[in-house]
Design goal:
The protein is mostly helical. Helices cover about 75% and strands about 0% of the residues. The two termini are about 40 Å apart.
Length: about 350
């Protein structure tokens, strides 16, 4: 099954965010930016170039690690260890939404640099995050039903066992040794994983564009230096989470390559855009703060929903984990370690 119909649109939206966000954040400064006496533009530029290389490498390694690791029997999606790793990744994504993205959105949309009316008259940050989570639920259910109907049509037309149904065949591999085959259940699981991986990537990309532009536009070496390591770890951990979802979705090589490239390149491209607009970008302009706040709030809603509903709840309430006390303990500890590691990074990024 290829990434067609509604999810081609998701990637179009992601690409549009990369192109349009820089233009949206340009505006007249409503608050004077703080002067940094120790800033050096040439040194800052060197750090930015280093950040592009480091974050690109960390992102690529993170997202490809689960993809390459599936060739290792111990890291197979059917093994218990994969559940533990996925719990860690889900904790990272959950912490990203709650600890990194949502507080940034609150800071932007409650800043004294933006108009008090209407932004000070209503809790827009929480409202946007809530609407974003509800919208993700709607996309989640719509896309799953769309793919399910599409798959049933192919099966009825006789393509389910041939080329048209090639993507459905692997779903039954785990049930070959069983007397009772449940193709609908297995097929639904595969479709759900495909929807989850693509919606999750959309939420990550939106946030990655924003942090990339913010880093690229900064002229303070003291600000950039700690961000390089922090964002590298940030992208690495997020990549592991996304990569795990991609593995379970069993995409074809082309789709995996596209998704990995999108994730790996988004933050470096954001940094490059930030470098290009350094002289006309003001992080304290009302337009920049509003756009960043809205995008961050929407991204937080997506990430929190995906982490809690599609990643954690789906695995933690599954019969496999419910019937295995050691697996439950390992997954819970892994979840806490993942959230703890990502929360600790909030001290620097």
């Amino acid at each position: 099954m290829e990434m067609s119909s509604p999810f081609k649109n998701l990637f179009v939206w992601a690409a549009a965010a990369v192109v349009l966000l820089p233009a949206a954040v340009l505006g007249e400064c409503t608050c004077e930016p703080e002067e940094d006496g120790g800033e050096s533009k040439s040194l800052a530029l060197k750090y930015k170039v280093g950040a592009i290389a480091a974050i690109l490498a960390a992102s690529a390694v993170g997202v490809l690690l689960p993809v390459v690791g599936r060739r290792v029997p111990a890291l197979s999606p059917e093994r218990n260890f994969f559940f533990v790793i996925k719990a860690f990744a889900a904790g990272v994504i959950l912490s990203t939404g709650f600890i990194h993205v949502l507080p940034d959105a609150f800071d932007s949309l409650t800043s004294p640099c933006i108009p008090a009316s209407p932004w000070g008259d209503f809790p827009f940050t929480g409202f946007i995050a809530m609407v974003s989570a509800i919208g993700t639920l709607m996309v989640d259910t719509y896309a799953t039903s769309y793919y399910r109907r599409r798959s049933k049509v192919k099966t009825v037309e006789g393509g389910g066992d041939e080329e048209g149904g090639a993507a459905v065949v692997p779903v039954h591999a785990h049930a070959h040794g069983s007397v009772s085959l449940e193709p609908d259940s297995g097929e639904t699981d595969l479709l759900r994983h495909r929807v989850i991986s693509q919606v999750l990537e959309l939420g990550i990309i939106v946030h990655s564009v924003i942090i990339g532009i913010a880093l690229g536009a900064s002229q303070s070496p003291k600000t950039i230096r700690p961000l390089i390591a922090a964002l590298s770890f940030h992208q690495f951990f997020e990549g592991i989470g996304l990569g795990g979802c991609i593995v379970q979705a069993r995409f074809k090589v082309r789709a995996v390559t596209i998704m990995a490239l999108f994730f790996s390149l988004t933050t470096p491209v954001g940094i490059a855009i930030g470098i290009g607009i350094t002289n006309i970008y003001s992080e304290t302009s009302s337009t920049a703060l509003i756009v960043q706040g809205v995008f961050n709030a929407a991204s937080a809603g997506i990430l929190v929903y995906m982490a809690l509903v599609d990643l954690l709840a789906a695995d933690f309430m599954s019969p496999k984990m419910q019937s295995n006390g050691k697996l439950q303990l390992g997954a819970n500890l892994s979840l806490l370690i993942g959230t703890g590691c990502m929360s600790l990074l909030a001290k620097w990024a």
